[in-house]
Amino acid sequence: MSAYESTTRNDGPPIEIRGLVNQFGDRVIHQDLDLTVERGKILGVVGGSGSGKTVLLKSILGLLRFKSGQINIFGQDIATASKKQKLDVQSRSGVLFQSGALFSSLTVLENIMVPMAEFTKLNRRESKRIGLLKMSLAGLPLNAADLMPSELSGGMIKRAALARSLALDPELLFLDEPTAGLDPISAAAFDALIKELASSLGLTVFMITHDLDSLYTITDEVAVLADKHVVAKAPPLELEKSDHPWIHEYFHGPRGRLGGKMRDHTPSGDQES
Ligand SMILES: Nc1ncnc2c1ncn2[C@@H]1O[C@H](COP(=O)(O)OP(=O)(O)OP(=O)(O)O)[C@@H](O)[C@H]1O
Questions:
Q1: ipTM, 2 decimals?
Q2: Probe residue for ligand 1, chosen from 22, 24, 210 as the CB with the greatest number of ligand atoms within 8 Å
Q3: Which intervals hold domain ABC transporter (predicted)?
Q4: Interval 152-186: pLDDT, tens
């Protein structure tokens, strides 16, 4: 049964990682990393530059061979999965890469139709109809269907890539810094779109982000990557209270939201009495 025909199957958490180790030469990136993402939740993933967020995403997506540990997607151990099982997992997942990763020689609609050609037996007319539906879900005007990626704004590229990631009605959506490069208004609109889609489509979302506003607005929980593993996983309002040095700095440092709030309320010269 293709993903397109499938209904949600009840088979283990969408993502379950145990004892993951990733290493390049002598350099250990992940050591005994554990992480579970429950069905229907939006998980934000944060961590300093070089903490291994992208390596983690690539490991989960099967784009990188990890040294040891176990990654189960929908209960399927991806290291031992057969080709058919891997295809099944892939067809139940959508990925929005940071750059959008659209095929530059294809129109917007053709880009969105690629996964359908790859994973389903839908004919071109049906794929087109579904592609247009996904465009509207992602908030793209239908007259963008025939545009080339080079003709799109940054925000439209993200929406086209989002439409493509939704092409197969995924249960699990991976987002790599979805609001990076967007102005604050477009970023807020994109956040709202993700939240709305996740709720209406019942998606589980794994989202790498540096955007504090996104964390507070749309995530249920945030996993923090530091010291080579997940040091905390909790709702943002709970994480604020953590005394882990990196987490504290993240929320309370000069670029942190709370740091900003404190700055806003710090009297400068004329003080309130
Ligand atoms: N293929 C590779 N070969 C060798 N080292 C790699 C490879 N891929 C990643 N690394 C190293 O692994 C570490 C983690 O990289 P990663 O891209 O996952 O960080 P990140 O948390 O996503 O950072 P950023 O927030 O800056 O994007 C980095 O030090 C990087 O240089």
A1: 0.96
A2: 24
A3: 15-252
A4: 988 889 889 999 999 988 999 999 988 888 888 88
